[in-house]
Amino acid sequence: MPDFTVSDMTCSGCVKALTGAVHDVDASATLDANLETKHIRVASQAAPETLAEAMRDAGFTVTINE
User: Fold this and answer.
1) How much is the pLDDT for 47?
2) What is the pLDDT of residues 20-66, one digit of tens each?
3) In sequence order, what DSSP letters do the residues of 12-41 get, joined into one string?
4) Are 58 and 25 in contact, with CB atoms under 8 Å apart?
5) How many domains does the chain have?
6) Which CATH number is 16's domain given?
7) Which residues span the domain enclosing 61?
8) How much is the pTM?
9) What's the farthest any 2 CA atoms get from each other in the chain?
10) Does residue 8 contact residue 56 with C-beta atoms inside 8 Å?
């Protein structure tokens, strides 16, 4: 499951926006977001870079964690 750091994710509204961005790529994706650590894990068939690009397009600073 790809893991991302979203350094500017600060609230549940951010999580909602990120979820929407990921669902635009893969409607069946599931997300596990941790606001405290600013990490998101995504269960999706889409490539991690595709997911990160969608979240960046939504206005967030995203890093793919290895």
Assistant:
1) 97
2) 999 999 999 999 999 999 999 999 999 999 999 999 999 999 999 98
3) HHHHHHHHHHHHHH-TT-EEEEETTTTEEE
4) no
5) 1
6) 3.30.70.100
7) 3-65
8) 0.94
9) 26
10) no
Give the integer Cα–Cα distance in Å for 11 and 27.
22
Q: Which of 26, 1, 65 is nearest to 18 (CA)?
A: 26
Q: Which residues contact 47 (CB under 8 A, 6 or more apart)?
A: none
Identify the CA nearest to 6 among candidates 51, 43, 47, 44.
51
pLDDT tens across 39-52, in order?
Answer: 999 999 999 999 99
**Please, what is the Cα angle at 40 between 37 and 42, to 5 degrees?**
160
